[in-house]
């Protein structure tokens, strides 16, 4: 199959959608990315791009664009709330000679800017909220809220945890509340009370709370993430400084000091959600990708990496297959077992006793499969 003959519509300009568009455009496909927002903007925190992800970017010629706005990291460390060591290990894949790279720590905003910045001019169409789609077998028609209609040989649904593509073609998979709140903010290094000493992730674990300290020294900052058990499933909960301080009570005094100094209006606070595994990701001309297919909790730091690896696997499947349906079947066969396992592992966040403190006699739905 010559993918340069394909007209491809990508729904969503997040990590997975932008990466798929880049990979496909390198092989001459006619790709357009439709994004509902009027501007592309990521908030909240830093993430780690694993060696396999960075190796894919090297293969696609965009490694340098990502490396310029990130810091290579050697290892991650897990500690008790008060700083006693639990575990310390190099990042998975760092010892793989073929990958030849580190995990890179990067701000979400810098990452999406770098990724969309390497796409051809005009490939992203902003202000296009998908309203409906009609699977016609060999092609699929899309209708957007602004009245525009498009027909494509392949539609890639990369529209996130609340995916319209998934809801309309693959059944109801409503987001599942994990019983947690995440407080995320990036602060300057000089506000970190000496906690930024190198380029390695540290996670502090106390009863019902995890604190992730992810250095962003290339931009003189620290990504500060507090993930704590909470029974309030409101998507964007209203919280106070006292709520946050209660979550980190008993932690290293420097962590408490960081939390105390924060301007809460700068902190992104969200209830934490994932979805149950989706049985089928594709039809003959439509596929899901990234969070739309397998949104997962952030405990393993694999959401963005999984979306990027999806994009790489989809491009490779399209290059190897003799038809779009065959490529989509091969793509799902390769990636779904991996993401199913990552979803399950990422849900194993807390002990039964810890959960019972917040949900007496029951578990939140996201923990029920443990």
From TrEMBL:
Cofactor(s) it depends on: FAD
Keyword annotations: FAD, Flavoprotein, Monooxygenase, Oxidoreductase
Ranges for domain FAD-binding: 7-341
UniProt-listed InterPro entries: FAD-bd, FAD-dep_Monooxygenase_BioMet, FAD/NAD-bd_sf
Protein name: NAD(P)/FAD-dependent oxidoreductase
């Amino acid at each position: 199959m010559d993918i340069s003959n394909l007209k491809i519509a990508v729904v969503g300009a997040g990590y997975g959608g932008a990466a798929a568009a880049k990979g496909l455009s390198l092989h001459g496909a006619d790709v357009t990315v439709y994004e509902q927002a009027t501007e592309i903007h990521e908030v909240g925190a830093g993430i780690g791009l694993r060696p396999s992800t960075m190796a894919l970017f090297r293969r696609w010629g965009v490694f340098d664009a990502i490396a310029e706005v990130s810091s290579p990291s050697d290892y991650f460390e897990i500690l008790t709330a008060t700083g006693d060591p639990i575990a310390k290990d190099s990042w998975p894949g760092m010892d793989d000679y073929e990958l030849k790279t580190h995990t890179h720590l990067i701000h979400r905003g810098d990452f999406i800017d770098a990724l969309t910045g390497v796409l051809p001019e005009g490939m992203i169409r902003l202000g296009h909220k998908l309203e409906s789609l009609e699977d016609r077998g060999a092609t699929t028609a899309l209708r957007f809220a602004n009245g525009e209609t498009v027909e494509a040989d392949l539609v890639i649904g990369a529209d996130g945890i609340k995916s319209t593509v998934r809801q309309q073609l693959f059944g109801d998979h409503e987001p599942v509340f994990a019983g947690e709140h995440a407080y995320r903010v990036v602060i300057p290094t000089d506000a970190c009370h000496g906690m930024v000493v190198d380029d390695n992730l540290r996670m502090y674990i106390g009863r019902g709370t995890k604190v992730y300290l992810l250095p962003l020294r290339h931009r003189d900052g620290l990504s500060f993430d507090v993930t704590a058990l909470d029974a309030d499933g409101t998507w964007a909960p209203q919280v106070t400084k006292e709520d946050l301080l209660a979550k980190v009570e008993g932690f290293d005094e420097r962590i408490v000091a960081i939390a105390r100094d924060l301007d809460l209006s700068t902190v992104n606070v969200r209830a934490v959600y994932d979805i149950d595994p989706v049985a089928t990701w594709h039809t003959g001309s439509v596929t899901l990708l990234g969070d739309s297919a397998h949104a997962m909790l952030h405990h393993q730091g694999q959401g963005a990496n999984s979306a990027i690896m999806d994009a790489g696997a989809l491009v490779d499947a399209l290059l190897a297959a003799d038809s779009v349906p065959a490529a989509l079947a091969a793509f799902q066969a390769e990636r779904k077992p991996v993401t199913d396992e990552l979803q399950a592992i990422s849900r194993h966040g807390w002990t039964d006793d810890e959960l019972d403190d917040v949900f007496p006699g029951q578990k939140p739905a996201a923990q029920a499969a443990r």
